[in-house]
Q: What sequence folds into this?
């Protein structure tokens, strides 16, 4: 049995320790927002936070998440309030098909958690997830907008 | 050639798709209007197939096609709402049922989201559906008030009686309205009176996406569901000879190993276990006759088509090319090549199905629910009306999920073998990359003759490529399905419909059928031929010593829409104005999917071959711009899709199989490579053009023409990585 906490809830799962976290989330715990895109940590559609750090869950064995905290987009909103990144994503109409966007949003939240006012270069370096629909320009705009919101609410 | 064959051709293609959707014959059987759908549990009343109204004034507008990010789940209902005169804030959108479409004699018409045609081909019947419902609601209110309907108007979900100022909401009269005879003829609004069309409306599906609640095919979860991973023969067309599954027997979670005709499936209690076990199943393949095919042999095969005397069809013939070319003052000839490309939808192909009691339920990311339904019915051997295709959001489509439906046949075949149990079948990225229906490789020879002043008097193109229409869509290359007998319309797109004032033109097609499966890849023929046409046009301008913008302008004087977008885009880009040292421009212009596009690229190329695109100005005239912000998004997305393809995209073949497998060797553009895109949205009105695909058409030639301006090097084959160039 492997224990892990997902979006604040504890779970025990009886699976092989090498089973990727992505498939434990999706097929065992029915947490569907992390998506499968490549299976080799290239595309980032499966990005979740492990103890606050963005990881590509397709390539993290569930044993590495044992007794730790996993956050997915389902757990991002607090007390019914969308995260400023989610709000910026809606305001700027970022998604097209949307398949990569859970991963993009989790990567952006992690970036802003570390860097309150990222430059374009910081965004280039942090946002390496693939979007086939080509929403990159809007992702950049929305991250800058979310940074502004975070600054004004913390100030 | 004011009207392109592509547009003329489409009704015929639609007709064909109708026929193919009718496999099994169920569609011709009359079921009449079922009462079941007219009154829903929440008291909602169906006014017509598209409009349902609840007593609390919520308006439900049905959407028949598919949402894959192109935005038509919002913009198509906007057309209904415009005429209905309802409060858009109270509109909910729901998918029309593919099963009900069978039973109700195609009440929702074509369900395919392909060919950038959702708005173009359904705008009239959607607006009429809204107008018809509005007139019925007005008539019901007028009856209640016992006043002439002509004294009543509808606005914002209310009917108002002008003289008495009495008001009734749509919800109050919906039930009475639904019992009235629909008016035969309704007058549609003049475009100047539109309130919703032309405004940037927020896409309806975005909040669910941002909250992680959007459901794609891959997300379907059913009680007792099993999971399947599949392996297909690495050489296209190969079959399963034998398997040895001894190593996975009794392994944890493994339920069944299924050797099918052309693939092997492992069924397990989760997908990861199925996929891992599949690696330990030993499969002997009968690879057939294509085990020696390579990219080099394919190139020779297509070159044979360029040089052939026989088996070549003439698509267009104006004047006498041979004679005009022979007597031209200057002769120019070139050969262009565009490669096979994979779609790489970020959600890999998959299909969930349950076959039980002679019925089939399918959940799949599909661009054509009717085709999915027909394929499921045929695979399971049940009538069409016994199948439902449950609708989900698509994790990208780009043409992959439209015509082929191979994933539905597989999923249903597995579910049939596991009868009674729901099975979710999902491909790995490797299967997805290596078993696509690829954008065809195409080898094209172009020749032109110039007169003394450098104007083209003769133009010739011959295209050698596999036909998508004949091999995938099974459409005979005959009129009216083809521009001429033996010609695939997509293979000659934008060459056949060359709009320039050139008196002697001959366009030929050498159909050469390779074993590599081909399909509709976003923008299809217009994703490759404009690169040829507009690059070669630049070669002519250069040979004539003329400015490439002015050269095109002079040749487009009788094609006002092409000319209009060319000029608008050049103006926005500051064509002709000085640039910093080392920065150069390139221009291109193309019609595609009923919209007129143009592009100007502004870039520099450094000594390491890094191409720094400072600006990409993209012009589009879609006639009417239904949802302008969505068009902006589509143009931005088209840029990424085309830049990815033109810099890195190339599927190569070795020993009959695809060499690339995943994103490490089939590269996708990322955020850091995104150049600045400026969209020139110039709707000139009076027609309805597509927006999902046209944006790509002019980009590759504009960038390559700028690279020529910067380096003097003429790029005649893609991708650019093969020329030592990459995106900075």
A:
């Amino acid at each position: 049995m492997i224990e892990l906490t997902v979006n604040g809830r504890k779970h025990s799962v009886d699976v092989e320790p090498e089973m990727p976290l992505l498939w434990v989330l999706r097929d065992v715990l029915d947490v569907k927002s992390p998506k499968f895109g490549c299976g080799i940590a290239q595309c980032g559609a499966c990005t979740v936070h492990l103890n606050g750090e963005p990881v590509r869950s397709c390539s993290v064995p569930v044993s590495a998440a044992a007794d730790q905290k996993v956050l997915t987009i389902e757990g991002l909103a607090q007390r019914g309030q969308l995260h400023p990144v989610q709000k910026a994503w809606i305001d700027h109409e970022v998604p097209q098909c949307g398949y990569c966007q859970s991963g993009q949003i989790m990567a952006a939240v992690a970036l802003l958690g570390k860097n309150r006012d990222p430059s374009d270069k910081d965004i280039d370096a942090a946002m390496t997830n693939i979007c086939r629909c080509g929403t990159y320009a809007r992702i950049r705009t929305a991250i800058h907008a979310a940074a502004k919101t975070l600054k004004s609410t913390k100030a | 050639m004011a009207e392109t064959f592509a547009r003329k051709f489409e009704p015929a293609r639609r007709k064909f798709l109708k026929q193919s959707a009718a496999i099994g014959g169920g569609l011709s059987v009359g079921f009449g209007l079922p009462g079941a759908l007219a009154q829903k549990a929440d008291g909602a009343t169906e006014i017509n197939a598209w409009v349902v109204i609840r007593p609390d004034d919520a308006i439900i507008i049905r959407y028949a096609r598919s949402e894959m990010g192109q935005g038509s789940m919002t913009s198509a209902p906007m057309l209904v709402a415009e005429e209905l005169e309802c409060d858009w804030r109270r509109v909910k959108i729901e998918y029309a049922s593919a099963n009900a479409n069978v039973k109700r004699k195609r009440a929702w018409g074509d369900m395919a989201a392909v060919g950038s045609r959702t708005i173009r081909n359904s705008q009239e019947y959607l607006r009429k559906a809204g107008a018809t419902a509005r007139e019925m609601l007005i008539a019901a209110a007028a009856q209640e008030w016992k006043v002439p309907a002509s004294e009543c108007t509808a606005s914002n979900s209310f009917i108002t009686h002008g003289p008495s100022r009495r008001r009734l909401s749509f919800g109050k009269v919906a039930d009475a309205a639904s019992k009235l005879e629909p008016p035969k003829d309704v007058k549609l609004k003049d475009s100047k009176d539109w309130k919703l069309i032309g405004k940037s409306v927020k896409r309806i599906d975005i909040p669910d996406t941002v909250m992680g609640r959007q459901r794609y095919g891959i997300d379907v979860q059913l009680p007792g569901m099993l999971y399947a991973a599949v392996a297909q023969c690495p050489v296209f067309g190969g079959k399963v000879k034998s398997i040895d599954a001894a190593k996975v027997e009794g392994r944890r979670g493994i339920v069944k190993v299924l050797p099918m005709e052309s693939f092997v499936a492992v069924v397990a209690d989760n997908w990861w276990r199925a996929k891992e076990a599949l690696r330990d199943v030993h499969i002997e393949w009968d690879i057939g006759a294509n085990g020696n095919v390579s990219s080099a042999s394919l190139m020779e095969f297509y070159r044979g088509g360029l040089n052939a005397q026989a088996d070549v069809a003439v698509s267009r013939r104006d004047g006498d090319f041979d004679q005009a070319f022979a007597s031209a003052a200057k002769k120019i000839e070139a050969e262009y090549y565009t490669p096979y490309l994979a779609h790489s939808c970020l959600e890999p192909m998959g299909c969930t199905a349950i076959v039980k009691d002679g019925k089939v339920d399918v959940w799949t990311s599909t661009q054509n629910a009717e085709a999915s339904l027909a394929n499921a019915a045929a695979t399971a051997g049940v009538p069409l009306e016994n199948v439902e295709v449950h609708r989900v959001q698509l994790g990208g489509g780009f043409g992959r999920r439209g015509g082929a439906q191979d994933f539905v046949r597989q999923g249903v075949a597995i579910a049939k073998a596991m009868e009674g149990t729901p099975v979710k079948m999902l491909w790995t990225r490797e299967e997805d990359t290596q078993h696509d229906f690829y954008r065809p490789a195409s080898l094209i020879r172009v020749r032109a003759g110039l007169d003394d002043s450098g104007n083209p008097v003769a133009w010739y193109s011959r295209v050698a490529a596999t036909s998508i229409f004949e091999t995938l869509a099974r459409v005979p290359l005959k009129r009216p399905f083809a521009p001429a007998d033996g010609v695939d319309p997509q293979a000659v797109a934008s060459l056949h419909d060359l709009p320039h004032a050139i008196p002697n033109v001959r366009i030929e097609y050498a159909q050469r059928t390779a074993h590599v499966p081909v399909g509709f890849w976003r923008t299809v023929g217009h994703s490759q031929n404009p690169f040829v046409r507009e690059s070669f046009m630049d070669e002519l301008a250069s040979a004539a010593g003329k400015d490439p913008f002015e050269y095109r302008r002079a040749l487009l004087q009788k094609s006002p829409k092409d000319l209009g977008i060319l000029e608008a885009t050049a103006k926005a880009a500051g064509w002709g104005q000085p640039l910093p040292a080392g920065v150069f421009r390139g221009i291109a212009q193309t019609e595609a999917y009923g919209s007129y596009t143009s592009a100007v690229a502004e870039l520099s190329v450094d000594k390491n071959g890094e191409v720094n695109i400072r600006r990409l100005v993209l012009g589009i005239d879609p006639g009417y711009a239904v949802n302008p912000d969505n068009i902006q998004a589509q143009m931005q997305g088209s840029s990424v899709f085309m830049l990815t393809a033109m810099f890195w995209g190339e599927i190569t073949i070795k020993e009959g199989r695809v060499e690339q497998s995943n994103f490490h060797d089939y590269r996708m553009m990322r955020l850091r490579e995104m150049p600045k895109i400026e969209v020139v949205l110039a709707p000139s009105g009076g027609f309805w053009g597509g927006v999902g695909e046209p944006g790509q058409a002019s980009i590759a030639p504009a960038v390559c023409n700028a690279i020529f301006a910067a380096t003097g090097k003429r790029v005649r084959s893609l991708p650019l990585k093969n020329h030592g160039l990459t995106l900075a």
